[in-house]
Amino acid sequence: MKIINNIKELKEEIKNLKGSTGLVPTMGALHKGHESLIKRCVKENDNAIVSVFVNPIQFGINEDLDKYPRTPEDDYKLCSDNGVKIVFAPKVSEMYDDNKDDLTLICPPYSIVNILCGKSRVGHFDGVCSVVAKLFNLTKANRAYFGKKDAQQLFIIKKMVKDLNFDIEIVPCEIVRCEDNLALSSRNKYLTFDERKIALNISKSLFEACNLYKTKTATKRAIIDNSLKLMEKLDIEYIEFVDKTTFKLQDEINDNTLMLIAARTPETKTRLIDNMELCK
Ligand code: PAF
Predict the structure, then answer these.
(1) Calpha distance 238→260 (Å, rounded)
(2) Residue among 31, 2, 13 at smallest CA distance from 187
(3) Where in the chain is the domain with CATH 3.40.50.620?
(4) Residue 280: pLDDT band with limits 50, 70, 90
(5) CB of 173 closer than 6 angstroms to any ligand 1 atom
(6) Do residues 127 and 134 touch, judged by C-beta distance below 8 A?
(7) CB contact at 8 A, 50 and 84
(8) Ligand 1 mean position to 69 CA, how many Å?
(9) Are 240 and 259 in contact (CB under 8 A)?
(10) Which of 3, 155, 205, 251 lies 20 to 30 Å from 42, alpha-carbon distance?
(11) Is the minimum distance from the CB of 160 to ligand 1 under 6 angstroms?
């Protein structure tokens, strides 16, 4: 496995690759969720590339850029153990030429970024799309793998690929959960012992919502009330329902509904997200 830090070397290496190439874009601090993406990428492509880059332009000023977990040695080992061919781990200056406040950005439409995570994380999806587009261009990957936990990110990236005619297939991958159903996230590392227990109510709300939906008598209001009760110790940012194909907010729930939650834990104020299709 090659660990490459600069763009020139990456481009040389890409020129010599034969067959199909898959990319798993990450910000490092790899966990079993990332590992499932990596395993699938290795299986489905002749060459698997993992990028490890904590992308500063997708973090707001008061967000956790500085304390975001960085575990490069463990990340490289996980990649190498899984048969990854190239890890691309550039420095910020390599990606943005020390010019990160004056970049050409890809900005998804307001209608999509003004809801859910984009509402509180202004500029976040501009940063995500811009770095992902760069990674697509640099790696010339045929496929790229993204987790469904970041559902809005996945929708926006698929839209970017379609709108801008990127020649790449986006492969959505299932959410990986701990045994107790907490969705895996690099940010789970911030949680205290007690907060972890409190955080379980996020996935519990989603599972219970699915069960309530299955009764066919529960309304959207009843599902929200149940979630509010379960998550009373969390600081809820949103409980929302979108149509999973259009990502438009729904007044009424139906078989196409994706329920999404974002909430902060009480002590460390860790922001966690999760989602589930009501009709699983
Ligand atoms: O999902 C993430 O980890 C990031 O948003 C991504 C896609 C790697 C872009 O920095």
Answers:
(1) 8
(2) 31
(3) 2-173
(4) confident
(5) no
(6) no
(7) yes
(8) 14
(9) yes
(10) 155
(11) no
Q: Is 234 in a helix, a strand, or coil?
A: coil
Q: Is any atom of ligand 1 closer than 6 Å to the C-beta of 27?
A: yes
What letter represents residue 181's amino acid?
N
- The CA 229 to ligand 1 mean position distance, Å, reads 32
- Please tell me the CATH superfamily of domain 2-173, with its number: HUPs (3.40.50.620)
Report the b/e string of 87-102 with b at 16+ CB within 10 A: bbbbeeebbbeeeeee
In the chain, the amino acid numbered 151 is A
Find out whether the beta carbon of 118 lies less than 6 Å from any atom of ligand 1. no
Number of H helices, E strands in the chain: 10, 9
Domain 186-275 adopts which CATH fold? Pantoate--beta-alanine Ligase; Chain: A,domain 2 (3.30.1300)
pLDDT digits (tens, 9 = 90+) for 118-163: 999 999 999 999 999 999 999 999 999 999 999 999 999 999 999 9
In short, whether 26's Cβ falls inside 6 Å of ligand 1 is yes
Q: What is the pTM of this model?
A: 0.97
Q: Which amino acid is at 139?
A: T
What the block records as the tokens of 24 is 């798993």
Token pair 């010019």 in the structure block, residue:
99
Rg (CA), the chain: 19
- Residue-by-residue DSSP string for 52-70: E---GGGS-TTSSTTTS--
Altogether, the residues listed in the chain come to a count of 280
Q: Which residues are known catalytic residues?
A: 34
State the distance from the centre of ligand 1 to the C-alpha of 218, rounded, in angstroms: 35
Q: Given the CA of residue 51, which atom of ligand 1 is nearest to it?
A: 8
Query: Start-end ranges of CATH 3.30.1300.10 in the chain?
Result: 186-275
User: Given the CA of residue 53, which atom of ligand 1 is nearest to it?
Assistant: 10
